[in-house]
Design brief:
The chain has 199 residues and is an alpha/beta fold. It has 2 domains: 6-54, RecR Domain 1 (Helicase, Ruva Protein, domain 3, Orthogonal Bundle); 70-179 and 187-191, Dna Topoisomerase Vi A Subunit, Chain: A, domain 2, CATH 3.40.1360. 44% of the residues lie in helices and 13% in strands. It has 8 helices and 6 strands. The protein is globular.
């Protein structure tokens, strides 16, 4: 028998469906929402309602936005000759936080993963090829995740774009600045050796 009242139990169940939230965390969050002022709890509910009704994909890059074009695609300050390809909007946000890239983005909305039933036609790859064909890009930076699916997606897209006069690059991988070789795993060391640079 459930130890919580119906509404509380339902909230715990819904919170428990969120990624990384187990039953205990869901209970803590539910009881926190019961303790905060009503306005604070309702502000959370309104924020959830707004993202479901107002947020959509940018018509150019497929980033999340509330207009037809996202703020990055609308910005005249961005370098329109460089295009960085990422898997998800959260990857774009991570790159933006670094403040190291001033070009444009293209969000694939996933990666090719045959074992999960995800093929190229379920991603925004066709739109990417159209952008490269009709744009003035000189470089496409592949920033897919450094795993089997990300590497496979990168290779697939690189082959599609090889007929266009654009330089295709991949994010560097390996040992991070400030780290110690002793603590690096085998894959990091292998990536660092493969991607070594001339001094």
């Amino acid at each position: 028998m459930d130890k919580h009242a119906g509404a509380v139990s339902e909230l715990v169940d819904q919170l428990g469906r969120l990624p990384g939230i187990g039953r205990k965390s869901a209970e803590r969050l539910a009881f926190h929402l019961l303790r905060v002022p009503e306005g604070e709890a309702l502000a959370l509910a309104e924020a959830i309602r707004r993202i479901r009704s107002d947020v959509r994909y940018c018509s150019a890059c497929y980033n999340l936005c509330e207009a037809d074009l996202c703020s990055i695609c609308r910005s005249p300050q961005r370098d329109s000759t460089r295009l960085c390809v990422v898997e998800q909007p959260r990857d774009l946000m991570s790159l933006e936080q670094s403040q190291a890239f001033s070009g444009l983005y293209h969000v694939l909305l996933g990666r090719i993963a045959p074992l999960d039933g995800i093929g190229p036609d379920q991603l925004t790859i066709d739109a990417l090829v159209d952008r490269v064909r009709s744009g003035n890009f000189v470089e496409v930076i592949m920033a897919t995740n450094p795993n089997v699916e990300g590497d496979g997606t990168c290779l697939y897209i690189s082959n599609l774009l090889s007929e266009y006069p654009v330089k295709i690059t991949r994010l560097a991988r390996g040992i991070t600045a400030g780290s110690v070789l002793e603590y690096a795993n085998r894959e990091m060391i292998a990536d660092a050796l493969t991607g070594r640079q001339t001094l």
